[in-house]
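Subgroup meeting minutes
Present: P.N., E.W., G.H.
Scribe: E.W.

1. P.N. recapped why we're keeping a running log of single-chain structure predictions: easier to compare across weeks, and new members can see raw inputs and outputs side by side.
2. G.H. added today's entry (112 aa).
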Amino acid sequence: MTAVPTLDVWLRSRSELVPDELRERIRFLVRDLLDQPASVESLAEIANLQLSALLQTGVTSREVALDLLAIDAIATYALELAASTGGDLGVSATTVMHTIAHLMDSQESHHA
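Output recorded in log:
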């Protein structure tokens, strides 16, 4: 059985072409998970938590663009990890998208 790398090791293996500022923001957002084994669930959860926190601020200007890019990258990494570990990519993608849709719905109801 292959050992699961830490999230730090896994991210480093994929971030070679990522711009420095974006790579640093991604690492900042997942900083509490870097020493943990890389997992689809933890990446999806942190992406959803960060998106929820960002939506709660109500800020929609360019100042949050880097955060949005980093959150998108983290969600994408969750799906990439699911695909690379033999997980059910369809189920993972559906779960991530439903969670995002739920966040958006709850955000709209707060502003209605």
